Amino acid sequence: MDRKTFLKKSALASAALVSAGALAKSVTEEVKLEQLGFNHLPSKKDLIMSNTVLHKANTRGHANHGWLNSFHTFSFANYYNPERMNFGVLRVLNDDTVQAGMGFGTHPHRDMEIVSIPLEGDLEHKDSMGNTTVIRNGDVQVMSAGTGVQHSEYNKNSDSLVKFLQIWVMPNRQGVKPRYDQIALKKEARKNKFQQILSPHADDDGVWINQNAWFYLADFEAGKSEKLDLQKKGNGFYVFLLSGKLEVGGQQLETRDGLGVWDTDALEFAALEKSEVLVMEVPMQS
Fold first, then answer.
1. Do the Cβ atoms of 277 and 241 come closer than 8 Å?
2. Digit-coded pLDDT (tens) for 258-271
3. What CATH number matches the domain at 3-283, 2.60.40.10, 3.40.640.10, 2.60.120.10, 2.60.40.1930?
4. Which pLDDT score is estimated for 79?
């Protein structure tokens, strides 16, 4: 897939952006959003090569609402960049920090697979399916919005921050029955290797979603290396470096950098220092 084809496929997600913008406006009653997109221009720092796209951490969209400080890898709410709509079916990758006692008020979703990965603190979830839960670092949460669901997310603590990744994946089936799940992961299972945390299969490791996608976490010591094989032909990898310094397929990444790679069967990872990384394998076409 050349650069022109990649950008064309990204543009096909514009309809999803409109939906996402509408949802974002209902995310909380506490935030009045500005008109979408007019103060954001395409980043000239994105490096799109023959089969990779590099998103440096400092080129992400940013919104600081006081109670919420959020960095957007892809277009979301007030941040609009026509060259950063999605990576295949990976639609949203938000890096969120929520102040003590604050959070997202009750808001709706439909036909989206929503994954939350807590990095720090306690995040309380409530939804219209009757679930009231708390997720913490070491957990992973998934919600299939399907025919429609409403939920809220709050920092349960009154004296500390909560930090988490909010990830949206476009599903391969619409109109499914809404579903919620969360699991606690064994952190030792990702020491110097990849721990699968999500797949399309209910009987596989991690949570599952309605899409041919696989997510992994790894915690590498300096000097360690590992290979990750593609699960399904036609998929691509999106690598998001949580911390450290890592070389991926010859490309050096630093904390919060993102790298998308397609037309490959595997990726080689080498830790230049202690590093924690999230890798998402997703279909490149919906």
1. yes
2. 999 999 999 999 99
3. 2.60.120.10
4. 95
